[in-house]
């Protein structure tokens, strides 16, 4: 197994490299950067943290947060729940009203499906009047 040497790893991170951007037609150096692996890691980590922070700030401090499920304002959630309950009860009332009107329509048209059974009625017998 290869031994881990902290000094060699640290030296590799601190080795200096040159990044040259050249014009392909004239071979003229446009930009030159002196970099190390450590500086590249630090730069990329900083960019990542900044982008993450900006994204979180954009969501938290703008109305975009309302598009995230469960993150909206609690009063809006409560109002939405109340409206849903009210809508359900109104739908039920409309169904009852439609059934009532259909029953009245059936009775008026004579197409009532209810059969009247008069055998169960308790009709009192007529009293005899003695003259």
What structural class is derived from the secondary structure elements? mainly alpha
The radius of gyration is 43 Å
Query: Beta fraction of the residues?
Result: 5-15%
* Tally of individual helices: 3
**Share of residues in helices:** 40-55%
* Strands, total number: 2
Number of domains: 2
Mean pLDDT: 85
How many angstroms does the end-to-end distance come to?
133 Å
**Reading side by side through the largest sheet, how are the strands ordered?**
1-2
3D structure, described in words:
The chain is mostly helical and 131 residues long. It has 2 domains: 7-69, no CATH class; 73-112. The chain contains 3 helices and 2 strands, in the order αββαα. It has helices at 6-14, 37-60, 74-109, and strands spanning 16-22, 29-36. Strands 1-2 form a two-stranded antiparallel ribbon. The longest helix has 36 residues, at 74-109. It is rod-shaped, with a radius of gyration of 43 Å. The relative contact order is 0.05. The model has no long low-confidence stretch (mean pLDDT 85).
Short characterization:
The protein has three helices and two strands; from the N terminus they run αββαα. The protein has two domains: about 5-70, no CATH class; about 75-110. With about 130 residues, it is mainly alpha-helical.
Topology:
Layout: H1 6-14, E1 16-22, E2 29-36, H2 37-60, H3 74-109
Defining key terms:
two-stranded antiparallel ribbon; 2 domains; single chain; mainly alpha; 3 helices; 131 residues; 2 strands
């Amino acid at each position: 197994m290869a031994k881990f040497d902290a000094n060699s790893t640290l030296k590799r991170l601190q080795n200096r490299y040159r990044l040259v951007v050249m014009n392909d037609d004239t071979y003229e150096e446009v930009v030159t950067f002196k970099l190390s692996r450590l500086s590249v890691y630090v730069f990329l980590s900083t960019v990542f943290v900044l982008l993450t922070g900006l994204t979180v700030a954009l969501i938290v401090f703008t109305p975009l947060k309302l598009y995230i499920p469960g993150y909206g304002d609690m009063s809006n959630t409560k109002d939405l729940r109340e409206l849903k309950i009210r809508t359900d009860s109104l739908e039920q009332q409309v169904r009852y009203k439609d059934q009532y009107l259909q029953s009245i329509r059936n009775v008026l048209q004579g197409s009532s499906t209810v059969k009247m059974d008069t055998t169960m009625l308790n009709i009192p017998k007529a009293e005899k009047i003695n003259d």
